[in-house]
Amino acid sequence: MAPSVLVAGYLSLDRIDCPAGRFVDVPGGGALYAALGALAAGAAVHLAAKAGADFPDAALHGLHNCGIRLDGVERVRGPSRRAALIEPAGSGRSRQQAASGWWERTRALAPPILDVDVDGCVLTPMPPELALAYARIYRAKAALLVADTSEAYAGAATDAVLMLAAQVDVFAPSRAEVALLVPDGNDEARHHGIAMHAPALVEKRGPEGFWLTTRDVLRRPIPSVATSVTDATGAGDASVGAIAAGLARGLDVEAAVRRAAEIAALAVGGVGPMGLGLDLAVVAED
Q: Which domains does the chain have, with CATH numbers?
């Protein structure tokens, strides 16, 4: 039987500027990409998120048709979070946090805590106090835990994010987030600093792939296997979901990350979540 994985986090509507063109109102968000990544890596997936009133029914139907369980998805009043994603170099960086409305919607759309029996749990970027509450529940269930964060939380709530890293099996921040969490020293010192908290650190490095650090192994590079990039949006989130699915299948962390690199390569092959099999009508702007 496929292992079961819960993915908790946010859904969004994205404006994507990428080598393939400019696209608006593309369904996305860390939870959506992580759920598709876990599914592609062989897990049975539950999704916990809140969908704004303008989040397309077609996207939710598409997730359901892919096989993702939506028992933890709630419709709420008000708009979705919106992100502007600009990828001249496949970085996936976002400008959304400059808008005050982003934080109001972050509070309103905080994912509900879904209490289900699963083999693994993915905590996509969310307020650290909410992620810690999730971690306590699923640690008690003996589920494998994988957590991500964002630059906003890594920079403004460093202690809480490091506390979260200590509560999970794999902590998977980006290169920029690692630098915010441990601002002093070189890459090796930063990895060592976070490894004092997290059992395993997987640093997402975009086109370079990943760096894996555990308490026994320092900075093992795991390269990207992508051969071309249509749109890098969501590839890092998808890889986090894939890592959780791999661990839940019994892979060791290095094997799980290598499988995640394959899923990330799928993700960058289409616009938005289309590379991961979500069938959407996405039209480029002129």
A: 4-275 (3.40.1190.20)
